[in-house]
Amino acid sequence: MDPRLLEAARRGDVIELQELLGVNDYLLERSCLHDSSETILHISCLAGRTEFVKELLKKKADLATRLNPDGFSPIHIASANGFVEIVRELLMVNSELGRLKSSDGRTSLHCAAINGMVHVIKELLKFCPASKDIVTFKGETAFHLALRNNQFEAFKAMVDVLQPHNIKELLNKDQVVYCLLGSS
Asked: How is residue 19 annotated by DSSP?
Protein backbone atom coordinates (compact mmCIF):
# COMPACT_ATOMS: atom_id res chain seq x y z
CA MET A 1 0.00 0.00 0.00
CA ASP A 2 1.20 3.47 -0.82
CA PRO A 3 2.68 4.91 2.40
CA ARG A 4 1.19 8.35 1.64
CA LEU A 5 -2.28 6.81 1.42
CA LEU A 6 -1.70 4.93 4.66
CA GLU A 7 -0.59 8.09 6.47
CA ALA A 8 -3.54 10.07 5.07
CA ALA A 9 -5.92 7.40 6.43
CA ARG A 10 -4.32 7.46 9.86
CA ARG A 11 -4.63 11.25 10.02
CA GLY A 12 -8.03 11.31 8.32
CA ASP A 13 -6.71 13.75 5.73
CA VAL A 14 -9.43 13.85 3.07
CA ILE A 15 -7.65 16.55 1.06
CA GLU A 16 -4.53 14.40 0.81
CA LEU A 17 -6.71 11.45 -0.27
CA GLN A 18 -8.29 13.53 -3.03
CA GLU A 19 -4.89 14.77 -4.18
CA LEU A 20 -3.48 11.26 -4.28
CA LEU A 21 -6.49 10.00 -6.23
CA GLY A 22 -6.15 12.94 -8.62
CA VAL A 23 -2.63 11.83 -9.47
CA ASN A 24 -3.41 8.11 -9.67
CA ASP A 25 -6.96 7.06 -10.60
CA TYR A 26 -6.23 3.46 -9.68
CA LEU A 27 -4.65 4.04 -6.28
CA LEU A 28 -7.53 2.46 -4.33
CA GLU A 29 -7.70 -0.52 -6.69
CA ARG A 30 -3.94 -1.06 -6.37
CA SER A 31 -4.13 -0.86 -2.59
CA CYS A 32 -6.49 -3.87 -2.69
CA LEU A 33 -4.24 -6.11 -4.76
CA HIS A 34 -2.38 -7.61 -1.83
CA ASP A 35 -4.09 -10.81 -0.74
CA SER A 36 -5.67 -10.74 2.71
CA SER A 37 -4.26 -7.37 3.67
CA GLU A 38 -6.03 -4.61 5.52
CA THR A 39 -7.63 -2.13 3.19
CA ILE A 40 -7.40 1.60 3.58
CA LEU A 41 -11.01 1.47 4.83
CA HIS A 42 -10.01 -0.91 7.65
CA ILE A 43 -7.29 1.49 8.69
CA SER A 44 -9.49 4.59 8.60
CA CYS A 45 -12.19 2.75 10.59
CA LEU A 46 -9.65 1.67 13.18
CA ALA A 47 -8.47 5.27 13.48
CA GLY A 48 -12.06 6.53 13.78
CA ARG A 49 -11.77 8.90 10.80
CA THR A 50 -15.41 9.41 9.81
CA GLU A 51 -14.91 11.97 7.01
CA PHE A 52 -12.18 9.86 5.45
CA VAL A 53 -14.45 6.81 5.59
CA LYS A 54 -17.24 8.76 3.88
CA GLU A 55 -14.92 9.77 1.07
CA LEU A 56 -13.63 6.24 0.60
CA LEU A 57 -17.17 4.86 0.46
CA LYS A 58 -18.02 7.35 -2.31
CA LYS A 59 -15.02 6.17 -4.33
CA LYS A 60 -15.01 2.43 -3.64
CA ALA A 61 -17.95 1.15 -1.58
CA ASP A 62 -17.04 -2.51 -2.10
CA LEU A 63 -14.16 -2.04 0.37
CA ALA A 64 -16.80 -2.35 3.10
CA THR A 65 -17.20 -6.10 2.59
CA ARG A 66 -13.52 -7.04 2.68
CA LEU A 67 -12.11 -8.99 5.61
CA ASN A 68 -8.69 -8.16 7.03
CA PRO A 69 -6.11 -10.84 7.96
CA ASP A 70 -7.79 -11.21 11.37
CA GLY A 71 -11.09 -11.92 9.62
CA PHE A 72 -12.92 -8.66 10.37
CA SER A 73 -14.61 -6.20 8.05
CA PRO A 74 -14.54 -2.42 8.54
CA ILE A 75 -17.96 -2.49 10.25
CA HIS A 76 -16.71 -5.06 12.76
CA ILE A 77 -13.80 -2.77 13.61
CA ALA A 78 -15.93 0.36 13.90
CA SER A 79 -18.54 -1.47 16.00
CA ALA A 80 -16.03 -2.94 18.44
CA ASN A 81 -14.44 0.48 18.92
CA GLY A 82 -17.70 2.38 19.38
CA PHE A 83 -17.46 4.57 16.27
CA VAL A 84 -21.20 4.99 15.80
CA GLU A 85 -20.93 7.60 13.02
CA ILE A 86 -18.74 5.30 10.96
CA VAL A 87 -21.11 2.38 11.59
CA ARG A 88 -23.99 4.58 10.39
CA GLU A 89 -22.11 5.58 7.22
CA LEU A 90 -21.30 1.96 6.41
CA LEU A 91 -24.91 0.87 6.98
CA MET A 92 -26.22 3.69 4.79
CA VAL A 93 -24.12 2.31 1.95
CA ASN A 94 -25.36 -1.23 2.59
CA SER A 95 -27.63 -2.19 5.50
CA GLU A 96 -26.77 -5.85 4.89
CA LEU A 97 -23.32 -5.16 6.34
CA GLY A 98 -25.06 -5.63 9.69
CA ARG A 99 -25.41 -9.32 8.80
CA LEU A 100 -21.84 -9.79 7.55
CA LYS A 101 -19.94 -12.40 9.55
CA SER A 102 -16.27 -12.30 10.45
CA SER A 103 -14.12 -15.36 9.92
CA ASP A 104 -15.00 -16.50 13.47
CA GLY A 105 -18.74 -16.12 12.81
CA ARG A 106 -19.38 -12.83 14.58
CA THR A 107 -21.42 -9.94 13.26
CA SER A 108 -20.84 -6.30 14.07
CA LEU A 109 -23.67 -6.56 16.63
CA HIS A 110 -21.75 -9.36 18.37
CA CYS A 111 -18.61 -7.17 18.44
CA ALA A 112 -20.53 -4.21 19.84
CA ALA A 113 -22.23 -6.38 22.48
CA ILE A 114 -18.94 -7.91 23.63
CA ASN A 115 -17.45 -4.44 24.09
CA GLY A 116 -20.55 -2.79 25.57
CA MET A 117 -20.96 -0.25 22.77
CA VAL A 118 -24.57 0.74 23.53
CA HIS A 119 -24.89 3.53 20.93
CA VAL A 120 -23.54 1.24 18.22
CA ILE A 121 -25.93 -1.53 19.25
CA LYS A 122 -28.89 0.83 18.89
CA GLU A 123 -27.72 1.95 15.45
CA LEU A 124 -27.13 -1.59 14.23
CA LEU A 125 -30.55 -2.77 15.39
CA LYS A 126 -32.21 0.26 13.79
CA PHE A 127 -30.70 -0.53 10.37
CA CYS A 128 -30.65 -4.31 10.63
CA PRO A 129 -33.05 -5.65 13.30
CA ALA A 130 -32.69 -9.18 11.92
CA SER A 131 -29.10 -9.24 13.17
CA LYS A 132 -30.48 -10.02 16.63
CA ASP A 133 -31.20 -13.57 15.41
CA ILE A 134 -27.75 -14.29 13.96
CA VAL A 135 -25.64 -16.72 15.95
CA THR A 136 -21.89 -17.26 16.00
CA PHE A 137 -20.36 -20.57 14.99
CA LYS A 138 -20.80 -21.55 18.67
CA GLY A 139 -24.53 -20.79 18.53
CA GLU A 140 -24.36 -17.56 20.57
CA THR A 141 -26.48 -14.48 19.95
CA ALA A 142 -25.45 -10.92 20.81
CA PHE A 143 -27.53 -11.32 24.00
CA HIS A 144 -25.38 -14.30 25.06
CA LEU A 145 -22.15 -12.47 24.31
CA ALA A 146 -23.18 -9.33 26.20
CA LEU A 147 -23.97 -11.35 29.31
CA ARG A 148 -20.91 -13.56 29.02
CA ASN A 149 -18.74 -10.44 28.91
CA ASN A 150 -20.55 -8.67 31.77
CA GLN A 151 -21.93 -6.01 29.44
CA PHE A 152 -25.27 -5.59 31.18
CA GLU A 153 -25.94 -2.12 29.74
CA ALA A 154 -25.49 -3.59 26.27
CA PHE A 155 -27.91 -6.41 27.11
CA LYS A 156 -30.43 -3.91 28.48
CA ALA A 157 -30.08 -1.71 25.37
CA MET A 158 -30.85 -4.67 23.12
CA VAL A 159 -33.91 -5.60 25.19
CA ASP A 160 -35.11 -1.97 25.17
CA VAL A 161 -34.66 -1.54 21.41
CA LEU A 162 -36.30 -4.85 20.61
CA GLN A 163 -39.17 -4.52 23.09
CA PRO A 164 -41.82 -4.28 20.33
CA HIS A 165 -40.40 -7.38 18.65
CA ASN A 166 -40.84 -10.87 19.96
CA ILE A 167 -37.53 -11.48 21.73
CA LYS A 168 -38.99 -14.02 24.14
CA GLU A 169 -37.49 -17.02 22.33
CA LEU A 170 -34.04 -15.41 22.27
CA LEU A 171 -34.18 -14.74 25.98
CA ASN A 172 -35.43 -18.24 26.77
CA LYS A 173 -32.53 -20.05 25.11
CA ASP A 174 -30.50 -22.21 27.46
CA GLN A 175 -27.28 -20.28 26.92
CA VAL A 176 -28.80 -17.01 28.13
CA VAL A 177 -30.00 -18.73 31.29
CA TYR A 178 -26.52 -20.23 31.81
CA CYS A 179 -24.93 -16.81 31.30
CA LEU A 180 -27.28 -15.26 33.83
CA LEU A 181 -26.47 -17.98 36.34
CA GLY A 182 -22.75 -17.74 35.65
CA SER A 183 -22.50 -21.38 34.58
CA SER A 184 -20.72 -20.80 31.28
From this structure: H
